[in-house]
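REQUEST FORM: STRUCTURE PREDICTION
Request ID: SP-0412
Submitted by: Lab K.M.
Chain count: 1
Length (residues): 273
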Amino acid sequence: MKILVTGNEGFIGKNLCEYLVKKGHEVIGYEYKPNVLPNPEGYDWVIHLGAIASTTEKDVDKVLDQNFDFTMRLLQTCDHYGVNVQYASSASVYGNQKEFKEDGPFYPQSPYSWSKYLVDRFIMQANPAEFKGLIQGFRYFNVYGQGEEHKGDQRSPISKFTEQAIKNKKIKLFENSNNYRRDFIWVGDICNVQEQMLHKDISGIFNLGSGKTVSFLDVANSVKSKYGGEIETIPIPENIRSQYQEYTCANMDKLNRIVRHTYKTVEEYINEQ
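STATUS: Completed
RESULT:
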């Protein structure tokens, strides 16, 4: 297949492009340029990953312009040419709750979350028969893996804790981290699942996580077991406290009916490094 990937220089984008090439696809990358849409004519799929990924970005207009408006224009252009689309959504649309099913409820709590929710809302309210191509949205849960070092504070705790243990022999853990449980998914699993979905004649929005939870304390202990060091407890920063998700766990029933995949655990990943 001939595939255009936006955000190809990002963490997930780089991993996915490399994976698709290994699977025999022709892959062309595109990085965001203001007011310039990529031309999807002649492609089998556009995989739209490009976005402002910072969950703490406060400039609402900037986030909506790049994450919502750009995505809607891209969807319209792809529909014009009959090109299939996969796009990245986010588990942050669910907010701080215990239920994570594709049909809601939804409680977005940041400009980033709202930008993702608004695209999802458009797709959920549309009739799939109105589009010339397929549209598949994936709500990523907590993605980790190789190549996320450049993300700074947006990195996964797996990456942060590993760097801290290696460099300083001290892992900084938020207070009450034994109670904070997240659904962590390895980026390699995302690549595998999305490549499988390229071959499925189906549209919709799908949770993409492991379907299991691990506490931040468990992650820290796994890193400590591998690299040594001490665990230091620190307060949660004020700039993320109000929107901090204490629990995430993807309901994977919908996606599991379509693709088969065994997901890597955090402990397996850490031990393999």
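NOTES: The mean pLDDT is 94.
Reviewed by: T.R.
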